[in-house]
Amino acid sequence: MPGFNHNMETESQQNETMTPPEQTQSRFLNSCNGCRARKVRCIKQRESDVSCINCRKRSEDCRFSRTKVRKARSAKGQSRRQTKNPDAADPVTPLSRAPSSPGARSQPDNLMASPSRRSIVGNSDAEAQFVPSGTETTYAANQMASTTPVDYPVIMANEQDVSISSLAYFSNSKLIALSKRIGTTQVADLLAKVEAAVKSTTRSPGGVSPYSNNLEKEARSVTLSQQCRLDYIQSYFDQVHPLYPFLDRASFENRARSSRVGDIGSVDPAWCALYHAVLGLGSLYHECGSFNAFSGTAWDIFRVSLAFFPRIVFGQINLVTVQAMAAMAIFSVTYEALPIEGVLISEAARIVSHFQITKAEACKTNQEFQRTFWVIYSLESEYCLNTGRSSIIPSHDISCPIPQTNLPFLSGFNWLQCKAKHAQMASDIYQRLFSVKARSSSQALRQREANRCLEELEAWRLSVPESFRPGLRLRSHRLGQPQAVYLAVQIHFSYYNVRIALARVCLLAWAQDSEEQTRYKILLTESARSITDLVHFIDLEPFVLPWVQYNMPQAALFVLFDFVIEHPCHEETRKNLLYMQIATSYFMRLQCVTGNTAFGTILAQFLQIATRFVECTCISSITQPEVSANPRGSELWQSRDSGIGTIDFEESLGFQGLQFPMHNGFEFQDMDFWLTESGVLSFLESSGDFGLPNPESEGPLGEPVGRR
């Protein structure tokens, strides 16, 4: 392998094979754009190669920028060992072999499995210590495109706050603590793969546009028989309408029979969009759905509605217009339209807010307006809760009454009122605990607000009928219809979603109170177990909401994994591992249905890591009793020294250096995560055998904690 020039700014000789004749005066940098952005060395196996080893390993385009004048500067740090086999799999880096010198700042290749792992210079002090110089920082910033919200991580939490999103659980500091405790960076590698998989689901595929400019072509492409249309409408009102009751069934069916929907030139655009959105939603229950974005028969039908979107936004606003936006927003929460979920839900919320449909005066005489508003508001509140952002519709400015809406399978239960109250509560909790303003509140105020929010959440739980009430065992045989079971799962998950967010906030608010810390850690773990208890009720079908089918079970798995690694010898660890096994089995089933390994194989490795770590730690504790000489015995919930993140360890993890969207919450106070760099816990299991399989993990877990 030829030698590599340490000066990244030195101009290379002209590469005739890559430079067009008209650019013979241009020169190319020695390092490709990807390696420069990641601040790693760019090495070719042969001078004649057109791509470097790093880009080839990641199957990325290897592009070299042209330059005319570059200021030379010396490179700092020692290069990490590069593999000679460009096709070899990325290894897991044991901490014992990680660089320890202050100059070794290069980010390991195995941490760059996804775009979310790109090193982006941030503003925090923790990130600043990894910037060699001001000149280098400025140079790196100039060589990269500015970070857009599309580049921001999805499942990574901000270092300076707690996100209301349960999925945004791990931060860089937490990853550092996890990796330091288990002895490898394997968790960071897995999260990089999960991040890439989630982004592929929630972001538009490259080169694919969901919007069509040819409206007539889209309408002609939908060739459905009259019987199919009737079946889809019937399925919509049987399956979807009870959960989102904003339409009047009789008036809709009458207009659908009398309208010439095939002649789109003479049909009201809002009505045509509403009609096709209803058809698309109903077709999901006839095997027309897909787990992939912008695909499937249901999506082909919905594209007609989407083609009318500009006309709806800039047209006259009336009841049908608002109902069309509500139906399109409901479709956007399915897998087929997930990349445009934010656009459609936000636009629906903007319309009802801009035209003051939130006011009682605007809709007091029309219950269809009232139901449509509360459906849109609930959708938007749910979206904000799961993505960690504030609502477009302020809850304190709503006076629209909630109409009586009974479920066909449970008379006397006003489901719309229950959903609306939860949406208002979630919006208020965000404003009081997770907003930017709330971060400046005193600790005493945070504690009071957190207690009030928990009381409000408990009051909402008690308002739910017992057969649907969270905290009680869900007995599907008593509910009867499958959609009643699905509704019960939604109610339970809505409750635990907020409960997890509040428990994490309380861990910060009572950072110095060990008893309160114990209380909220138990609350957090019990919520994760309750979610796992319900996964066998979830249908593995495309019509199931992604946040129900994937987000909540994954959040529960993260919480359980965190507790097991922190308390490997706790008396509850055996049970938590069993719950993790239940969640893993569910995700493997989901993978079989979707064909996406991120839904199964990748998440199953969290169980492998946890099982292996528990076995090694408990064996080490038994063979070295002096390590676990803790007089407090089984009082393992107590927080201990939380000092983490030494320079050497951060180097070995290859500090992520990510810029995160400022979601909301409080300043990070070291206690947001449970992991510490203390030794193993004192409680010893009588046996290290947990009755679970002992799978081989992808990489070494290093020495047991007690032997480091």
TrEMBL record:
Keywords, sorted A to Z: Metal-binding, Nucleus
Record field: compositional bias (Polar residues): 10-27
Residue intervals of the Zn(2)-C6 fungal-type domain: 31-64
Pfam families: Fungal_trans
Basic residues compositional bias, start-end: 65-83
Coiled coil spans: none
InterPro entries per UniProt: AtrR-like (IPR050987), XnlR_reg_dom (IPR007219), Zn2-C6_fun-type_DNA-bd_sf (IPR036864), Zn2Cys6_DnaBD (IPR001138)
Superkingdom in the source lineage: Eukaryota
Protein name stated in the entry: Zn(2)-C6 fungal-type domain-containing protein
The species this protein was found in: Fusarium oxysporum NRRL 32931
Lineage, uppermost ranks: Eukaryota, Fungi, Dikarya, Ascomycota, Pezizomycotina
